[in-house]
Amino acid sequence: MRICSLVPSGTEIVCALGLADQLVGVSHRCDYPPEVVGKPIVSNLLVKKQPSTNGVGGETTQHSVYELDAALVQALAPDLILTQEVCEACAVPASLAADLARGLVREPQLFSVTASTLDDILTNIARLGLVVGREEEATRLVHRSRERIERIAATAAAAEKRLRVAFFEWPDPPWLAGNWIPELIVLAGGLDRFGQAGQRTRKVDWPEIVASAPEIVFLAPCGLTIDQTVGELSKHLTRPEWSALPAFHDGRVYVLDGSLWSRHGPRIVDGLEVLAQLIHPELFPGPPPEQLVRAIGR
User: Fold this and answer.
1) pTM (predicted TM-score)
2) 76, CA 20 to 30 Å: which among 3, 125, 280, 292?
């Protein structure tokens, strides 16, 4: 099967199922695992996104910020195109992929890798496994993932206290994470007073954030590296609200590599494990990978 992936989550699932060699084209955002680097890139960013305006998984743009190379896709002749409907600002939207597919000489099958909850993510792995002929591999991957999730949750449940957590997808104006992130926070032994599992990311006023007194703050803007996030954050840390947060005074403000948490693929369990290590280091010894986390001093 010839597969063209327009969404990093789909690319990661395909590779986890052992089909990296069947990926004939990927989006400009597909950078993991390493074997996808160098594959033909079929999408481009038309304009710079404005996460502070649109938010991740929140409001959508009126027009797509992406363009697809129809001539290249035609030449690649995919049998299957992977797309998504989670957020039009984060990856090529399904509507644009559908328009492209209809214009090809031989219209390929479309598969939407769309999720709102952790269970949706695992279900997508199983569904895509059926489509690409890797049902057994997908079943094993889902089973291993569920076992890891259960182990992490059981360990975190032993915590003496659940700490209040704020997970920012953009710092100013603040967008607090929704979809599967609130679920991950609870499984990792934290309390999320801003989001609900399956509900979209939302913009939150600073008075509400200050009143919640988060003891741990995570910042993981979609599409930004840790260095880019730190640079963006430096513009906003002078706000007086930051100094009012217990997390800021306790040195528990962490910048994360957003790709690990925004991509609804098999690595989401790795993201859960990292959150558990940061929320309850007494239960999950060993520092998380340096390339994924950076603590911000007050």
Assistant:
1) 0.89
2) 125
Three-state DSSP state, 59 = coil
Which of 170, 188, 193, 190 has its CA nearest to residue 262? Answer: 170
Report pLDDT for 59: 42
Residue 58 has pLDDT above 90, yes or no: no
pLDDT digits (tens, 9 = 90+) for 3-32: 999 999 999 999 999 999 999 999 999 999
CB under 8 Å, gap of 24 or more: what pairs does 94-99 form? 95/64, 96/64, 96/66, 96/68, 97/6, 97/68
Quote helix, strand, coil % in the chain, to nearest 5.
40, 15, 45
DSSP secondary structure letter of residue 162: P
Q: Do domains 3-140 and 162-296 have the same CATH topology?
A: yes
What number of other Cβ atoms are within 10 A of residue 50's Cβ?
12
Give the tens place of pLDDT for each residue, 68-97. 899 999 999 999 999 987 766 666 777 888
Domain regions of the chain by residue span? 3-140, 162-296
Report H helices in the chain. Answer: 8-16, 51-54, 70-76, 94-102, 118-131, 135-156, 181-187, 206-212, 226-233, 240-243, 246-249, 258-262, 268-279
Cβ distance 101 to 79 under 8 Å?
A: no
Q: Is cis: bond before 214, omega within 30 of 0?
A: no
The most confident of 54-63, 83-92, 117-126, by mean pLDDT: 117-126
Q: Going by C-beta distance under 8 Å and a sequence separation of 6 or more, which residues neighbour residue 106?
A: 77
CATH class of this structure's domain 3-140? alpha beta
